[in-house]
Amino acid sequence: MSNPKKNTVEEILSRLTVKEKVGQLIQISIKDPDLIEKVKSGTVGTVILAESPTAGNEVQDKVLLSELNAIQKIALESSPALPLVFARDVIHGHRTVFPIPIGQAATWNRDLVKKGGEVLAKEGRANGIHWTFTPMLDIARDPRWGRIAESYGEDPFLSAALGEACITGIEGQSLSDTTSMIACAKHYIGYGAAEGGRDYNTTEIGENTLRNIYLPPFKSAVKAGVGSVMASFNEISGSPVTGNQDLIRRLLKEELCFEGVVLSDWEAVAELLFHGVCESMEEAANLALNAGIDIEMVSTCYEKHLEKLVHSGSVKLEILEDSVRRVLEMKLKLGLLENPYTAENLGVDVYLNEHHKKIALDSATESMVLLENKNNLLPLEIELQKILLTGPMAHAREELFGTWTLDGKKSEVESLADFCKSLQASNITIGESVLHSDRLLKEVLDHEITLIALGEHPQRSGEMNSVSDLSLPAGQLDLLKKVKGIGKPVVVLLFSGRPLDLSEVRLYADAILWAWHPGTMGAQACIDLTFGIESPSGRLPVSFPRSVGHLPCYYNYKNTGRPHTRFPSNYIDSLSSALYPFGYGLSYSKVKYSPISLSKQEKKKGETLTASISLTNTGPVAVQEVVQLYIRDSKSSMTRPVKELKGFQKRFLSPNETVTVSFTIDDSLLSYYNHENKWVVESGSFEIWIAPDSVTGESVSLDFI
Ligand code: BGC
């Protein structure tokens, strides 16, 4: 049967010159001084709406829809007469800003992450943007790396599940809907393993770890139909990803059958020269296209050299055409051939509407993790206490947005102070916005409880913002010590883009509510949780280390040959475990877990079984419990982690309610890539936990025969 879309692509391809074909693979910046000339000459395929290589940390011009439509008109009047695709980093919300991705990961709520994707796509597309460079699926095991803020944390399963949710939300039912965008799984692959946590740094990843730890989120993104993948800046074991045929063409395109577009990161094709694997931009173009990079972002190796390389036969025409086909298919899927322009009034009822704000509020609320709550200090009773709100983040507005917020506006976000004022609660005093510690201590003395808002400025995390010290920013711990020194209860509200070293903070805090950078509705979420209007349900998507010296610190480590015996692999000067483990978080209730029951104790290949548990909310308030399934492959032909997350459910429980929670275990949950890179399940025993976090609970055994 003939496929009309395929026919259209072939028809377009047949009428393009080689130069025009190359043009489809070129992505230029909206700020390129020659943009209009290049579009007129028909040698641009897509436009990135960013001005600089580190747009995520800088103020960018807002998107001007009329300008985009005008540029589109020029493209359609040029010789290839093909529409442009406009791309922008709409990372965690457009006008309605959601928590940073690691905060969204802390919700452990697929549905909320999906809805976040939907909102982002609706608002972005209404602004004329067709393509967003999110979600970031890099496994992030090192909090020194500033881009941990953009990740879903340290775990392959959680990242895969939430990545899939985000992609399906962004891409919707059909990409031609004016409510959808093309998503981008980035950065393929291993970028988060940067040595020392220094952005862009060298990585050394063995093939087995690459496939079992770093690949799974990309594998499920491809399965979920993601439209694009961005190659990462880094090298892996001596080979820059941007020029790596094995990783892009063979693994991603052939083995995983990815049919969408692969693009380079910003100027990464030209950066192959700095990596030292080629000597000229011509060589870089040759290397990258052959590796499978369809679109070159911003640098001009393809623009200047690809046509020549095709004519000389160094790059085969069929390789070029395979890439062009992918770009044309993207344009077709977006419906741009029929509807190339975006209506000017699409955004009116969309930006920051009440529905979007409500989803952002739910997301912010569920993202926050209660790390400490001594003597059940929280929730505070709003009517009863004389409360002081103070600290360097108490008056923060756009600082609550977090890194990579290009379109959120300061006027559209409330600070904690603003929100508390709006409550008109006479028992809450808002501390001064300029902190004079002498005056502050006097205020602390005059109140019963202090809420102190501490944390990182968002420009301390994100791209190119790695740190060597995970303490609170300068002066904040000292301030906290002094405040606690007054002798009254202190609640720390902590905003951050990365896990910090809280080993001292927790000594001086009676409660710690970890709030990440929570977005437009963050202040309300924080106060709602503090006063018990909501019960905390966030759980850590990443382990919190005891210090920088404890890095890397992740829960799914290997057992080693000497775990607990005479020569254990431990530190002699401190505990080796995480300070707060992966999956951890408190609530305002207590949930009791029964022992696990398995529907059978033995499993054969192809069979499934059910692991169940009953949960009872024994505490005073309703909660949402994140029930986590962990599996250990106890005997296998290669070493395997001590535990791996293989399922999770977020369940609502009223006080005294008991529910049964079940997980289906099939071969896929027991499989891994072996030494031959084959996806296998091997006979032997497995341990299974259903638990509230990665360190609690008793396991049961399952035999795979
Ligand atoms: C970042 C990408 C981003 C791109 C475009 C790069 O510096 O690594 O994540 O999508 O810029 O702004």
Q: Indicate the percent of residues in helices.
A: 25-40%
Strand content: 15-25%
CATH domain class of the largest domain: Alpha Beta
Q: What would you say the CATH architecture of the largest domain is?
A: Alpha-Beta Barrel
Number of beta-strand segments = 27
Instruction: Report the total helices.
Output: 21
First-to-last CA distance: 45 Å
Biggest pleated sheet: 6 strands, mixed
Per the principal axes of the C-alpha atoms, what is the gross shape? globular
CATH homologous superfamily name of the largest domain? Glycoside hydrolase, family 3, N-terminal domain
- Count of structural domains: 3
Structure report:
By secondary structure, this protein is of the alpha/beta class. The chain folds into three domains: 4-347, TIM Barrel, CATH 3.20.20; 351-550, Rossmann fold, CATH 3.40.50; 591-704, Immunoglobulins (Immunoglobulin-like), CATH 2.60.40.10. It has a six-stranded mixed β-sheet, sandwiched between helices. The chain has a five-stranded parallel β-sheet with strand order 4-3-2-1-10. It has 21 helices and 27 strands. It starts with a helix and ends with a strand. Helices cover 29% and strands 17% of the residues. The radius of gyration is 26 Å and the shape is globular. The mean pLDDT is 96. Beta-D-glucopyranose binds at residues 50, 53, 55, 89, 133, 186, 265-266, 463.
